[in-house]
Design goal:
413 residues, alpha/beta, 3-stranded antiparallel β-sheet, 13% strand
């Protein structure tokens, strides 16, 4: 794995060594339960509250409004189902969009089976929701608008500030799924005018199995999990102390490094997109060109399957000594043969959606890594296209833009 180039960081990131270091303290001798009153347990409680403060600082929230969960999927389910049950007497209408994550779509469909009405707004060719569509869809019985902040497949950043201004004026709760944006771009709950916000630790170099839901003071919501009195009686279950401490450290590091990393990754992203467009014919960049996450590239390559590219890149060969790990879309549904519902929502035909490749970089990736990975991508795509019965064009070029022999770029060495 040391030699591998991992370009699937939207699925998960490598846990930062500093995060692992602080977690290890709570995996050994310090195993007390934070629910107990004696000193052994109260130390764990103090560590949890410190982590809560770090997370609150990262998203501009009051630490009293942060509730720890098992991750963004639980947080999204809690936000949607919890608000729906709490406000059922007021109305049974929810608004979302067609290009949402399945952890948003599935709870909405669950509620539809129980008599709720859900409006799925369209997105444009870049994956953007029109705020005017949100305003036009709000009804007297609307109780919640749930929108992703940044799309997990195509990286498009939604105009949440404009949508938040609309929901605030209309008196409707706004839930934001910020699993992909927290730790990567500035996220401030006040600026977004949101009432609830979900996040997950493993998306920004924290541990898996821990996340949080921000619930603005005064928001009506019922618990998703019932049992003990943890998290102010809103989320039952013994606290995952090592995970929560690790999440807090990841939040602290993200806040410290956010500006420089945004600038570096944006430059790397644009460099890679430029090389792809220079060296490959018949491709489509999916998502907004500039209004997108700093580390996200999603392209559709005409004439070949994304799964074939992904598998070809991941197995070392004599020509490809370093495996390159990419995705064909969302890791949560990568085992399906169906084309991405997100790419279809953009208006792509199914065959082009099937040819999508997502590359998402991390703080560990360099320009040299990018050159190597793209050079292998170009070779793989050329080879697969040569075998394709539906594609006959294109010529092989290296990452430097040269073609034929005599290339001296580092990626070809």
């Amino acid at each position: 794995m040391d030699k591998a180039i991992f370009l699937d960081n939207a699925a998960t990131t490598r846990t930062d060594p500093e995060v692992v270091g602080v977690m290890s303290e709570w995996l050994g001798d310090n195993f007390g339960s934070p629910a107990t009153l004696y000193t052994f347990g109260s130390q764990a409680k103090q560590a949890i509250e410190q982590a809560r403060q770090h997370l609150a600082d990262l998203i501009g929230a009051d630490q009293k409004d942060i509730y720890f969960t098992s991750g963004a999927t639980e947080s999204n389910n809690w936000a949607i189902k919890g608000v729906a049950e709490a406000l059922e007497e007021k109305g049974k209408h929810i608004i979302t969009n067609q290009a949402e994550h399945h952890s948003i779509l599935m709870p909405c469909r669950h509620l539809e089976k129980r008599g709720w009405d859900v409006t799925y707004l369209p997105v444009d060719g870049d994956g953007l929701v029109n705020p005017e569509d949100v305003a036009g869809a709000i009804r007297e019985d609307t109780v919640l608008v749930t929108m992703v902040h940044a799309n997990h497949e195509i990286g498009t950043i939604q105009p949440i500030e404009e949508i938040g201004a609309i929901t605030r004026e209309k008196g409707v709760y706004l839930h934001v799924n910020a699993a992909q944006s927290v730790g990567h771009i500035p996220v401030d709950v006040a600026a977004l005018s949101c009432d609830l916000l979900s996040l997950s630790g493993h998306k920004f170099y924290g541990p898996k199995g821990v996340g949080a839901l921000y619930i603005k003071r005064g928001v009506r919501i019922v618990p998703l999990l019932l049992g003990g009195g943890q998290e102010k009686k809103r989320r039952a279950g013994t606290h995952n102390v090592p995970g929560i401490v690790g999440l807090g450290k990841a939040a602290e590091l993200a806040r410290k490094n956010l500006g420089p990393e945004m600038e570096r990754l944006t430059a790397l992203r644009d460099y890679m997109i430029g090389l792809i467009e220079k060296n490959m014919d018949d491709i489509r960049l999916n998502g907004h060109r500039t209004r997108r996450l700093p580390n996200n590239i999603n392209v559709s390559i005409e004439g070949i399957e994304g799964e074939s590219i992904m598998l070809s890149l991941s197995y070392p060969t004599a020509a490809n000594a370093r495996p390159v790990f990419v995705s064909t879309g969302s890791a949560c549904v990568s085992g399906t043969l169906e084309p991405s519902h997100i790419l279809l929502a953009l208006g792509l035909p199914a065959e082009l959606a099937h040819g999508s490749v997502r590359m998402t970089m991390s703080r560990h990736d360099t320009r040299e890594d990018a050159d190597y990975a793209l050079n292998i991508l170009f070779e793989v795509a050329e080879r697969l296209r040569a075998m394709s019965p539906v594609y006959k064009r294109g010529s092989k070029k290296c990452a430097s833009g040269s073609s034929g022999e005599g290339c001296d770029c580092e990626a070809a060495s």
